[in-house]
Design brief:
Radius of gyration: 14 Å
Shape: globular
CATH superfamily: Nucleoside Triphosphate Pyrophosphohydrolase
CATH class: Alpha Beta
Strand order of the largest sheet: 4-1-6-5
Number of helices: 2
Helix content: 10-25%
Distance between the termini: 28 Å
Structural class: mainly beta
Number of strands: 7
Length: 131
């Protein structure tokens, strides 16, 4: 079975909102120029619940605490990557970015996203479920 089936890494994203309805966007250091803005994200660890991945990645990248909500995206990604996204609500913490991974963080209104945002972010930020 192991030999015959594809192996996947799982990229997990959090659509983090504050009490004002703004969404947290991050400018990622290692993403391609012109497409560096996106949502907090990272790869799930073996055996990790994907909701835990959202909490861990948001904390690692921004020092913020979140509560994970509904699943909004589950699909196959580039090659052998599975992509998962959850809504998340800001609980607290002091915004402090991890300078190794993140260049900048912004709270944005859904209709005021910066240029260079990843295309998949638009429907997620609007609150749509992505097939």
């Amino acid at each position: 079975m192991w030999i015959l089936h594809a192996k996947f890494v799982v990229g997990v994203t959090g659509v983090v909102r504050d009490d004002e309805g703004r969404v947290l966007l991050l400018k990622h250091r290692m993403w391609p120029p012109g497409r560096q803005w996106g949502l907090p994200s990272g790869f799930a660890r073996k055996g990790e619940d994907f909701r835990e991945t959202v909490v861990r990645e948001v904390r690692e990248e921004t020092n913020l605490d979140v509560e994970v909500g509904r699943l909004v995206m589950l699909n196959s990604g580039f090659r052998t990557r599975l992509e998962v996204a959850y809504e998340a609500r800001l609980l607290g913490g002091e915004l402090r970015v991890d300078p190794f991974e993140i260049l900048e963080a912004r709270w944005c209104r859904p209709d005021g996203l910066p240029e260079g945002v990843q295309p998949v972010c638009h429907p997620l930020v609007r609150g749509e479920t992505v097939p």
